[in-house]
User: What shape does this take?
Amino acid sequence: MENIVIANDYIWCAVPVFNNGETVRKVVEGCRSILKNIVVIDDGSTDADVSGLLSGLDVTVLKHKKNAGKGCAILTASHYIESRGGAYMITIDADGQHYPEDIAKFIPMLREDGSDIIIGCRDFDIENVPGSSRFGREFANFWLRVETGLHVSDCQSGFRAYPVRLLNKIKFKGNHYDFEAEVLAKAAWAGLELKTVDIGVYYPRSEERVSSFRPFWDNLRLTLIHSMLVGRRLLPFGHKRLIESREKLDFRILLHPAKFIQMLLKENWTPGGLAAAAGVGIFLGALPLLFMHSFVIFYVAVRLNLNKLMALNIQHLCMPPVVPAICIEIGYFMRNGTWFTDISFATVFGQFSDRVLEWFLGSLIVAPVGAAIVGTLVYLIASIARRPGGSNA
Assistant: This one.
C-alpha cells in the first residue's frame, strides 16, 4: 500500500540566515506564500536586525548569539520543528539563489512514514554559474558515491526536505557547510532513502554575488569530514539503522556469470569512479602487504563502492620485481644515504626484515605518486572514451 502524502500542516520551512539582509525578507515572503509554518534561524547576523526585517510576517525567528554555522542552524530548526509537532522540514537558503515557489515540487513527494530526504537538483544550464560550483557539485557527488554507493545528481544543494524525527536521532560532527555532506552519508547509512527533484536556481553576476562560503576554512572542513566518513566506511562494523533495508541481496545473480561480470564492469564506471579504483589499486599494490594484496584491495573496493575489477587488475602493475625494487631502493637511500647495490641472496633474503622496512619506507613515496599518475591517466582515458564518438559502446 502506498504511503499517504503528508498534510501541509506538518511541513515546515526553515531558512538559515547569516548576513543576508538584502534578500531574506523576499525569500521568507515567498516561502510564506506556500507554507504557513516558517522558522527563520538568525545565525549571528551582523549586517541587519533579522527580526526587524521580518516584522509583520507571521513567522518564527530563532537567534544564535554568535555565528555557529549553517549546519548548527539547520539542527536548531529541526529540534524546534519536532517540538512543535512538525514532521518534515524544507530548508532553503536566504541568499535568493533558490526560488521559494519550488517548495511546491517537494510537497507531493513527502510521505507519511517520513523516511526520505528530498534534495533539490539545481539546473546548471543557465548563465553565471561559477566554475567552482560545477566542480564542487561533481566533487561532492563523487565522495557521496564512495561513502554510500548512491548516486545523487546534486548532493551539494541546500534546498532539501528532511524528516525531523529521524534527523534528530543522528549524531553529527559538522556544524558548517560540512554538515550538508555529512548528513546525506549518515542518513543513507541509517537507512533513509535519498531522492531528488528538479529545481531552478539563480546566480547573479560575479561582481554582484555575496556568499558566506569561506574557501579555505570551508574546504578544509569538507576535506576533514569526507576523510572521517571514508575512514568510518572502511571499518568492518555496521551502522546503526533507523529504517530497515528495503533492498535484499539477491545471490541468484551468481548463477548467471555473464550478468554478474557485466554488473561488475558497470560498477561505478564513471571516469572519476574508475580513476579512484585505479588509484586505490596502485596505492595498496605498492605497499608491502605480503601475500595479502588482493584481499585488502577487494575489501577496500567493497567498502568504498569502487569498481572491483579495475582495482584488482590494476594492482598487477605493482607486481615484483620492478615496483618493490624501486621502493626498496628509495627506502634504502632514505635509511643510508646511498643506493642499494649489493644485491644477492644473502642481502635480499638473509636481511629480509631490513628489505621489508625499506620497501615500506619507499612505498610511502611510490604509492601516492603512482596512484596519482595512474589515476589521472585512467580518468583521461575514460573521459575520452565516454565522449560522443569515442570508443564507449
Summary: Residues 8-234 form a domain with the Spore Coat Polysaccharide Biosynthesis Protein SpsA; Chain A fold (CATH 3.90.550.10). DSSP finds 15 helices and seven strands in the chain.
